[in-house]
Amino acid sequence: MILEVKNITKKYQNKDDETIALKNITFGVNQGEFLSIIGPSGCGKSTLLSIIAGLETKNSGEIYIEGKKVEGDSQLIGYMLQKDCLLEWRTIWSNTLFGLEVKGKKTKENMEYVKQLLKKYNLYEFKDKYPSELSGGMRQRVALIRTLAIKPKILLLDEAFSALDYQTRIMVTNDIYTILKKEKITAIIVTHDISEGIFQSRHQLKNA
């Protein structure tokens, strides 16, 4: 099992009372699996993803990746948000290298890996263009390749396709599902769209 989440609880405290966002959440994900976390807005889905990514603290519970307890962020996790967050003043090629730059891993070998990803998924011919010149679906694929550039074993997707119109969202989710399967990436997607979650995943957690 590549990821184990055990008894995660998260509380938000204010001067009058406390709000329990998550209580004793436990599940596991095997290598290469797709898991959807489905529920309405405000039920704690994104909070759970942020805790797994090490971006937010928890009150109790444990997270294990490949059998090792993790505290804080992990180099094995990639994260895609609702917006593609591409830098408009940088070319597509420059955008795909951004994560490597941030992590100090912009090596010749890793740059070649990104180049091959762009070629493999039909984006290389657009490498010198800017984000404003691409469709919403293409921008999301660029964002995915930027995330894959750091070679994560687990990819977290937080409503990553919600900004797209329905037809484009179906096309892009199918594209990205195919890419992740080919690259053997384990994925956890947060969504409030039940049909989207069922379409992409073999397993679902509802009302997380």
The count of helical stretches stands at: 7
Beta-strand content bin: 25-35%
Strand order of the largest sheet: 6-7-8-3-9
Reading off the top of the CATH hierarchy, the class of one domain is best stated as Alpha Beta
Q: Which term fits the overall shape?
A: globular
Tell how many strands the DSSP assignment holds: 9
Largest sheet: 5 strands, parallel
Helix percentage:
25-40%
Beginning-to-end CA distance, first to last residue: 20 Å
Using only C-alpha atoms, the radius of gyration works out to 17 Å
- Reading the helices and strands in chain order gives EEEHEEEHHHHEHEHE
In CATH terms, the superfamily of one domain is: P-loop containing nucleotide triphosphate hydrolases
Helix/strand class: alpha/beta
Mean pLDDT: 85
Instruction: Give me the CATH fold name of one domain.
Output: Rossmann fold
Low-confidence stretches: none
CATH architectural type of one domain: 3-Layer(aba) Sandwich
Describe the overall structure.
By secondary structure, the chain is of the alpha/beta class. The chain has a domain at 1-73 and 188-208: Rossmann fold (3-Layer(aba) Sandwich), CATH 3.40.50.300. It has 7 helices and 9 strands. It has helices spanning 45-53, 92-96, 98-102, 108-120, 136-148, 166-182, 194-200, and strands at residues 3-13, 18-29, 34-38, 60-65, 68-69, 77-80, 154-158, 186-191, 203-206. The chain has a 5-stranded parallel beta sheet with strand order 6-7-8-3-9, sandwiched between helices. A 4-stranded antiparallel beta sheet has the order 2-1-4-5, covered by helices on one side. β1 (3-13) and β2 (18-29) form a beta hairpin. α5 runs parallel beside α6 (166-182). It is globular, with a radius of gyration of 17 Å. It starts with a strand and ends with a strand. The mean pLDDT is 85.
